[in-house]
Amino acid sequence: MLFVQSFLNEKLAKFKQSAILADCELTRKHQTYNSEMLSQYIAHNLEEQLNKITEHGFCVMDDFMLQASILILADEISALNAVAHLHKAGTGKTQINLNEDLRGDSICWLNEANASVAQLVYFKQMEKLRVGLNEHLYLGLFALESHLALYPIGAGYKKHIDRFKIDTNIRKIDQAVRQVSCILYLNQDWLEEDGGHLRLYLNQADASLDIPPLPLPDITYLDIAPIGGRLVMFLSDTFYHEVLAATRNRASLTGWFLTR
Ligand code: OGA
Ligand code: MN
Fold it and tell me: How far is 96 from 126, CA to CA, in rounded Å?
């Protein structure tokens, strides 16, 4: 009996070990695949950015701004946090439903009229992008709304979409809507193992969209690390996404280009 027991225990231990190894292997495979996948969506200049967003509906650009400006923006958000000038982000249409289970970041809306020098650099860079997007995609983007966001350790933002497809019958005339989401990360020396990835779902466009779905790759999402200076841009009504928890504070500057 004892023999059977120890035999079973040994078997169980071996099984557990192989399950752990299989898990590691899967993670490793995903990471390799993820970074290979990601590389085809990386743009190196404005023109590539516009071509990629036209083709795929999203793109990633590293060093969107000089590291010196990124550092200053990161300092600004830490300073705002230190003096309690960030407020808990809301969700939903009215932005007043506080739900920390859904979303754990604190934010500060930016206003170009009283922006800091580094924020003005950001606004200038985003204006170039807005003009380029209008020329390439004929979107008629007329404004940008942006906020700094800070996710404390362990906080995230559950799977969501930044805008649902508009029903033109119920949409009020002149109502501004989010068309393109842009997230600029402000984190120095971020490592893959720090977590905090933006998980972008690639094949779950809003079912009510009248554009054809994007070509399906054989993974359903991409994990994008929030590396300082990196800008991720995607069509707001097309991509579900979430923010995974991180082991460090995670800072970003998020902007949405709007149409009427
Ligand atoms: C958002 C959002 C993603 C990120 O603010 O709506 O999805 O990576 N942010 O910070
Ligand atoms: Mn979002």
Answer: 27
- Strand-pair category, 87-88 with 106-109: antiparallel
Flag whether 203 is in a domain: yes
Ligand 2 mean position, distance from CA 241 (Å): 6
β-bridge pairing 58-61 and 231-235: antiparallel
- Give the tens place of pLDDT for each residue, 9-47: 887 777 777 777 777 777 777 777 788 889 999 999 999
Question: Domain for residue 12, yes or no?
Answer: no
- 109 within 8 A of 147, measured Cβ to Cβ: yes
Q: In total, how many domains does the chain have?
A: 1
- What CATH number does the domain containing 127 carry? 2.60.120.620
The whole-angstrom separation of Cα 97 and Cα 238 is: 23
- The answer to the question of residue 164 being in a domain is yes
The finding on whether 162 has its CB within 6 A of some atom of ligand 1 is yes
Q: What percent of the chain has pLDDT over 90?
A: 65
Q: Is 197 exposed, middle or buried (0-12, 13-18, 19+ CB in 10 A)?
A: buried
Sign of CA dihedral 135, 140, 143, 148: negative
Confidence of residue 170 (pLDDT cuts 50, 70, 90): low
DSSP class of 211: S
Task: Round the average pLDDT of the chain to a whole number and report it.
Answer: 87
Q: CB of 146 closer than 6 A to ligand 1?
A: no
Domain that holds residue 126: 33-259
Candidate from 123-137, 164-178, 202-216 with smallest mean pLDDT = 202-216
pLDDT for res 25: 76
Answer whether residue 194 is part of any domain: yes
- Nearest-atom index, ligand 1, CA of 89: 5
